Amino acid sequence: MAEKLNQKNKWSTLSLSMGLFKKAFESFREWRTPELMKNSIPYPLTKAYDMVSEMQIGGPLPKEFKEERYFIMKGPIKVATLDTAFHQDEGLVNFSFLIKLRELFKKKAAIKIFHDYVIPYVREHVGKEDWREFLPGQYFIIDRKRSLVITAKFYFNNPQKCFGLALMELKYSGIGIDGERETDAKKKVTEMEAASLFLIPILKNSKEKWPFIAEKLNKLFEHKEFKKTQFAAMEFCFAVIALQTLALPNLLELEKAERILEYILTMISNPELGTYPRDMIKKYQDEWNAYFKRSEPPYYGIASVLYDALECKKIYEVGDEKYKDPIVLMLLAEEVMMFSDLKWWKDLIENYDIVKDELPGIEF
Fold first, then answer.
1. What CA–CA distance (Å, rounded) separates 52 from 69?
2. Which residues pair with 301 in a beta bridge?
3. Which terminus of the chain is more exposed, N or C, with fewer CB under 10 A?
4. Structural domain tally of the chain?
5. Which distant-in-sequence residues (6+ apart) come within 8 Å of 346 by Cβ?
6. What is the DSSP letter of 224?
7. DSSP character for 246?
8. What is the per-residue pLDDT across 303-335, written as a single tens digit (0 to 9) for each?
């Protein structure tokens, strides 16, 4: 059935996912260089020159590795993101792709592909189907014969909605031969890793999605209230980060929560912005708390700060008094809430033991 669908429509979610996955599985040991891989992939690849983030090998790579990101484009539409890592002597060590949700791509479709196509294919070629949870929304299985880890990824919450598969050299995966973490049977993630896992999708997706959010909101008003600039996307990103990190002190010990927040703030800071990112996130959270204490909807506190940061001009007048337009505040609050995954930290903590980083010379 999969082959027939590939011939009929190579751009369907099924054809894309199984086409890439089967090709990578069959050719993993043969792809010694990026050129060999690119010549073998049945889709046109556009190399991405921005930051290649979320590398599945776990953080900055040593110099003997080379990682590259590609987009699979259908005309002007980016339908998939492909991440790869090559070792200078061993060749391909990681192949991972994410297919974006599209008009006919529903949650049940991704799950159906996994159950009806991926699991049977892996069972046929690996001889097992004991998939296990590795990270929230990610499941893995080990091919011991070939020393590979196969991963399925499901992201159905904002800001990232996509489905993907990955193949990785077992020795670089951080998974022991018994299917557990190498150092401990209990799954662990460091505080810095947790901060990075949290932050990278928000940074990426807010930059990509803010222009569409602004366009949608602007259609509701006579004058364009919302700019599609990088600065505006950054402000929206700060609002989301502020909202989602409010949960940390309620879920973790205070010192651990403060360290993780500090990692996040450090990651989004640079010399050009100075203290602006941390000042804004504090301002968002202060307004949330102020509204909450006044028994007012706290989401409007975040929306009020974002209203000012985006330099909204729309005013609501009652007599001589002027107020921020309540409709604009409501829309901004809704967009921040819909973009945010408010269960992200809870889900991570339920599945992982967040451990302190041992970084000499760094103290938060």
1. 6
2. none
3. N
4. 2
5. 247, 251
6. -
7. T
8. 999 999 998 877 766 666 777 888 888 889 999
